[in-house]
Amino acid sequence: MKTNYNQYQFSKKEWIWHSLESSFLCLVINYLFYRSWIAFFFLFPIPLFYLKNKKKQLIKQRKNQLNYQFRDALSALNAALRAGYSLENAFTEACRDLKKIYGKEEDLVKEFTYIEHQLHLQVPLEKLLHDFAGRSGVEDVANFSVILATAKRTGGNVITILQKSIRILEDKIDVKKEIDAALAAKKLEHTIMSCMPFGILCYMQITSPGFLEVLYGNVFGVFIMTACLGIYLLAYWMGRKIVDIEV
Questions:
Q1: CA atoms within a 13 Å half-sphere pointing along the CA-CB vector of 20
Q2: Any idea where the domains of the chain sit in the sequence?
């Protein structure tokens, strides 16, 4: 069965776990900002947004992992081409190398295994890569698919063209990995800073429980706390946009 990497379906375990996470988040927000069971019912959209955002994060992580594995596949493919294999046989050799590196359960290994089987059925390689590129949504896979199709259609030394293209794509993916590594610390800082407002409220609740009592149980307090929550969510969204750089 072909996989569409632009979609993600939670497993039963994931669905339960993320639902519990979002429910706990609702409880924390209600306790720190409202302390009202009525307000808790107005927070019910939060789990929906949380699960939707979690799916987007998992889709992105899966695509990034696929992209990084594709870089290793390109290296294995380039090595096979240099060894004198034909293009189709080079994919078979690359698939064997990927199985040794990642095992048989990784997404890219499954895709290359499927391509290998279809090649034995005389399905054109460019058609298989075009299909994989469309389902993966990974730009580098799409670029390689276009380069292969163009090289075969226009003629010339296909192997030489592919080898040069592979080196360029490898360099691009390496740069992306370096940028992701550099941003990892900033993303961690953003996560810590995002937790700070909740930590401050918890600290004040524990050390000076009466200090914030005026903000609970009245319309004025609800208005103030809702405004604070809105500002926090806006700041969180802006922070995510800043550290979430596309290469």
A1: 5
A2: 12-243
pLDDT in tens, 110-150: 888 888 888 888 888 888 888 988 888 888 888 888 888 88
Quickly count helices (H) and strands (E) in the chain: 9, 0
Query: Any alpha helices (H) in 43-157, and if so which ranges?
Result: 45-82, 87-102, 107-120, 125-136, 139-154
User: How far is it, in rounded angstroms, from Cα 85 to Cα 36?
Assistant: 70
> What's the pLDDT score for residue 172?
85
- For the residues 170-189, what does the mean pLDDT come to? 83
The CA angle 50-28-184, to the nearest 5 degrees, is 55
115 alpha-carbon distance from chain centroid: 24
> For 91-102, how does the pLDDT look when each residue is reduced to its tens digit (9 = 90+)?
888 888 888 888
Which one, of 23, 8, 28, 3, lies nearest residue 201 by Cα?
A: 28
